[in-house]
Amino acid sequence: MADHDLVIRGGTVADGTGSALREADVAVKDGRIVALGNVNGSGREEIDAKGLLVTPGFVDIHTHYDGQATWDSRLQPSSWHGVTTAVMGNCGVGFAPVKVADRQRLIELMEGVEDIPGAALDEGLNWSWESFGQYLDALDARPRDMDLGAQLPHGALRVFVMGERAAKLEEATADEVAQMRVLAAQAMRAGALGFSTSRTLNHRTVKGDPTPSLRASEAELLGIALGMKDAGQGVIEFISDFNTPDPESEFAMLDRLLAASGRPFSVSLAQRHTRPDGWRRLLGLVEGLAAKGHSAKAQVAPRPIGVLQGLQASRIPFSMCRSYKAIAHKSVAERLAIMRDPAFRARLLEESHEPLRSEMAARLVDYDRMFPLGDPPEYEPPRESSLGARARHEGRDPREVVYDYLIEGEGKNFIFAPFANYAAYNLDCCSEMMQSPHTLIGLGDGGAHVGLISDGSYPTYLLSHWGRDRKVGRLDVSWLVKRHTLDNARAVGLNDRGRIAEGYKADLNVIDFDKLRVEAPVMKWDLPAGGKRLLQGATGYRATIVSGSVTYRDGEPTGTLPGKLVRGPQAV
After folding, report:
1. 51: phi > 0 → left, psi -120 to 50 → alpha, else beta; which?
2. For residue 505, which phi and psi values (nearest 5 degrees)?
3. Mapping DSSP to helix (H, G, I), strand (E, B) and coil, where does residue 85 land?
4. What is the three-state SS of 320-371?
5. Residues whose CB is less than 8 angstroms from the CB of residue 526 and which lie 6 or more positions away in sequence, other chains included
6. Per-residue model confidence (pLDDT) at position 22
7. What is the mean pLDDT of residues 159-180?
8. Is 306 strand, coil or helix?
9. Which tens digit of pLDDT belongs to each residue from 421-446?
10. How many CB atoms lie within 10 A of CB 407?
11. From residue 248, how far is each of 243, 288, 289, 293 by CA, in Å?
12. 277: exposed, middle or buried (C-beta count within 10 Å: 0-12, 13-18, 19+)?
């Protein structure tokens, strides 16, 4: 009779603490790690990990599976990339609490902010809940390929309490703030991992309206934070433009909120191309909060944040042109046939010279920041590989080069257009951000931006690019593992995972590090109502293990679904 449920033999262990890699066995019983070192007893199942990297399962603290998790047991793409725990409900958007009359409003908000097709949400959500606790119950009823935690979204909470007045950005009354405080406490006690809010103009409904939380008062935010204090748990996730001349004033407000509530806090941080050094000022303000004794972190990304443009995607550089708008509703094959017509090509290229007014639209003509993504995908492309540089080299109009690239490869080509973290055409800023003790690795947005962005592959890229492939400035593999396991787990109160040690949850990856790679993204039409989404796989994962059960072997699902809803903070 076997002594253990699972033994991983002779792997090179990165235990999640950042300690030096070492060869060891890992034994698992009843979903927990029971031994690390030289394990003499046998396992009911054994994995030969000689020459392979063994890590804790990755903890992704910034995803948007709020809808998908209600109808899908496989949280892909994240589960293809070694993620064994995902946290959703970020950026102030989600689906609970909700009144029947407001369901469509929350769908429109999610579609606009996170680019998840409204038709897919309409068909996929069964709305068997009203309160946040009931939403968690609905999530709890479905088995999954990973563990999942949820946060209370400010947009949904505000609409639930204030109705139409929330959408009009009106100020909450004292009674409404008091109600939000009660509901926040109830959500935390029901198992929310935290609360998220958004104060950015980039977050709008599909109709173009601002996110309801955009101008929420300090009194309102304080009331919600005090509700979390009443419950004694929960983290605060915050996103803001911080684009006023005085971001210090907003951080002064955050200082007061954190002092009153005592709750941990994180804020999204990226390098803007219009202000390439502005992120350092904001990180300094986060450091200032930490210096005052607050638990404050900035969530950062390990590669550029950018959109994928192409005939399969939601946008191409000619999306604002009249002639393209007239065919945008057609299938890829139909559009491809039309765009191959020389007369249409000439007309569209002529229209593309017309001036664009918005900053977002202006990105569509920044040809020096448009790169062929390629296969394997290149996320740190040299400046001279841009389509703008190609046009100069060939003595052609960049619009022509872009047009021709789009219709090559049967319309399946993607243009990678980074809009953050790539001002200097390299990832040095990401390296600097990641190495700050006041940051967390996040912003992958798994489950969101399904027609434009494919960043749920961050965990694989973090290890393969920064730990092995980058020509200069490579980072220690054990340290990289720690950043995406133990550090993230502790930041959201999940102290039972993220480390390979006795007593910890047996969430593990067995990785062929030499073969670890991010695959090129592909478009699939597999969401409810035939909605499309970008999916991006990986190679090199020999096994992914959740609670001691192998969920993926060589990238293929085993059929086992041990993942659970995580309710609130966890102890070892």
Report:
1. left
2. -60, 135
3. strand
4. CCHHHHCCCCCCHHHHHHHHCCHHHHHHHHHHCCCCCCCHHHHHHHCHHHCE
5. 533
6. 98
7. 97
8. strand
9. 999 999 999 999 999 999 999 999 99
10. 17
11. 11, 10, 11, 17
12. exposed
Q: What is the mean pLDDT of the chain?
A: 96
Separation between Cα atoms, residue 216 and residue 460, nearest integer Å: 37
Q: Tell me 547's DSSP state.
A: T
Note the pLDDT of residue 244. Answer: 64
Q: What is the pLDDT of residues 45-101, one digit of tens each?
A: 999 999 999 999 999 999 999 999 999 999 999 999 999 999 999 999 999 999 999
In this prediction, residue 365 carries a pLDDT of 78
Q: Is residue 480 helix, strand or coil?
A: helix
Nearest-5° angle of CA 442, CA 448, CA 454?
Answer: 70
Residue 471, burial from CB neighbour count under 10 angstroms (0-12, 13-18, 19+): exposed
| CB neighbourhood size of 385 (10 A) | 13
Instruction: Tell whether the torsion through CA atoms of 36, 37, 39 and 45 is positive or negative.
Output: positive
Q: What is the pLDDT of residue 444?
A: 95
pLDDT value of position 425: 98
Averaged pLDDT, 453-458: 97
Taking the model in full, what pTM does it have?
A: 0.97
Looking at residues 25-36, what average pLDDT do you find? 98
Sign of the C-alpha dihedral computed for residues 150, 155, 161 and 164 taken in this order: negative
Whether the predicted pLDDT of 498 surpasses 80: yes
Average pLDDT over residues 109-134: 96
Give the number of other Cβ atoms within 10 Å of residue 328's Cβ.
Answer: 14
- Residue 1 confidence (pLDDT): 84
Do 33 and 10 form a contact (C-beta atoms < 8 A)? no
In angstroms, the CA 123 to CA 461 distance is 33
Cα separation, 8 vs 28, in Å, equals 9
Q: Pull the structure tokens for residue 143.
A: 């088995």
Classify each residue of 310-321 as buried b or exposed e, where b means 16 or more C-beta atoms within 10 Å of its C-beta.
bbbbbbbbbebb
Strands (E), 100-242: 147-153, 194-199, 235-240
Cβ contacts of 260 within 8 Å, gap of 6 or more: 222, 225, 226, 229
Do residues 152 and 89 lie in contact, with contact meaning Cβ atoms separated by under 8 Å?
Answer: yes
Enumerate the H helices of 435-570 as residue ranges: 458-464, 477-483, 486-491
- Alpha helix ranges (H) inside 232-341: 247-261, 278-291, 322-325, 332-339
Mean pLDDT, rounded, for 6-30: 98
Helices (H), ranges, 72-142: 103-114, 118-124, 132-140
Which among 248, 242, 261, 245 is positioned nearest to 287, based on CA atoms? Answer: 248
